[in-house]
Specification:
Layout lengths: L7 E9 L2 E6 L2 E7 L11 E6 L6 E6 L5 E5 L5 E6 L3 E6 L7 H12 L4 E6 L7 H12 L3 E4 L8 H8 L3 E6 L5 H8 L24 E4 L5 E4 L16 H4 L1 H6 L17 H7 L5 H20 L1
Parallel strand pairs: 3-5, 8-9, 8-11, 9-10, 11-13
Antiparallel strand pairs: 1-2, 1-4, 2-3, 4-5, 6-7, 12-13
Length: about 300
């Protein structure tokens, strides 16, 4: 009788189609996937074997995910980005022009799953009054913000101390310098970088989420740059919780189920008019709620 192949365990460094790059102990292996129902994402914990019936190592099972950052695709379906992360690092920069609505939605997705979040403003040597104003507001709301400059390495040491031994997912617009930061933090990563295009829009230099090891432990997941993001609709009920100032301000509303749109006696809208709540953040909240309502109506 042929002895059964031993089962090994590892972490998915990158998933691509019907294959995955898996870190397992001291080795890194390219694995196929057994069956058609098994789908992996960067950060998954998996079991794999060397099966005689397969061409090479094969992932045979995936552990339940502790959490998963997902985005809505063009059809309104949830699409996983990375799983089992400990921290979300949202990267913005003066160039390309920051999309603060995108930052809000990433933070909302993390808050809805109780994932620690940090905002990194890269290329901070490029002065911007708008960025300074937004950073001041985010800090008032309790979001940790770190300003970095890859060229002079300003802020890099502070960021490295923050990363410690956990898994951190880097997300943001294309061209903000995520891969450059990854290279500065994990020199062996050799992540691909690119110059900004002439119209100052970022090129997509990362095509799939990829895990890079840190020394002595932990890791960075570099996600593809995006131009839009929204947490999946099933988290819609947590939208107010994701905007901490609106959640707190809503306690003074006339109605317990106030949406903070056109309802009478809305304390949130009063706070917006008095600039105690950022009008831009309030508009960000309204856009997210409307998106969820549109997707719900389609279903």
């Amino acid at each position: 009788m042929t002895e059964a192949a031993p089962t090994n365990h590892g972490i998915v460094l990158a998933a691509y189609g019907r294959g995955a790059l898996v870190s397992s102990g001291a080795e890194t292996v390219h694995c196929g996937l057994i069956g058609r129902k098994l789908h992996l994402v960067c950060g998954d914990r998996v079991a794999w074997r060397r099966l005689p019936s397969a061409d090479g190592p094969t992932v045979v099972a995936v552990e339940p995910r502790r959490n998963c950052i997902e985005r809505i695709d063009a059809r309104g379906r949830a699409e996983p980005v990375a799983a089992n992360i400990d921290r979300l690092a949202i990267v913005a920069a003066p160039e390309p022009a920051p999309d603060w609505f995108l930052v809000d939605r990433y933070w909302a997705g993390a808050l809805q799953q109780d994932i620690e979040t940090v905002l990194i403003v890269n290329k901070s040597d490029l002065d911007s009054a708008t960025i300074a104003e937004e950073l001041a507001n985010y800090r008032r709301l309790g979001l940790r913000c770190i300003e970095t400059t890859s060229a002079s390495r300003a802020g890099i040491d502070e960021l490295r101390r923050l990363l410690d031994e956990r898994a951190t997912l880097f997300v943001g617009q294309s061209g903000v310098g995520k891969s450059t930061l990854v290279n500065a933090l994990a020199p062996l990563a050799a992540a691909q970088t690119a110059e900004l295009t002439r119209d100052r829009e970022g090129r997509h230099t990362t095509s799939t989420a990829r895990w890079y090891r840190l020394v002595p432990a932990g890791g960075i997941i570099d996600a593809p740059g995006v131009r839009d993001f929204a947490p999946p609709p099933r988290l819609a009920r947590a939208a107010q919780r994701a905007f901490v100032e609106i959640l707190e301000g809503g306690g003074g509303c006339r109605f317990n189920d106030c949406r903070h749109f056109d309802e009478p006696g809305c304390a949130v809208r009063a706070a917006v008019e008095e600039k105690r709540i950022s009008p831009r953040r309030y508009e960000s909240y309204r856009r997210l709620v409307r998106l969820y309502e549109t997707l719900s109506a389609r279903r």
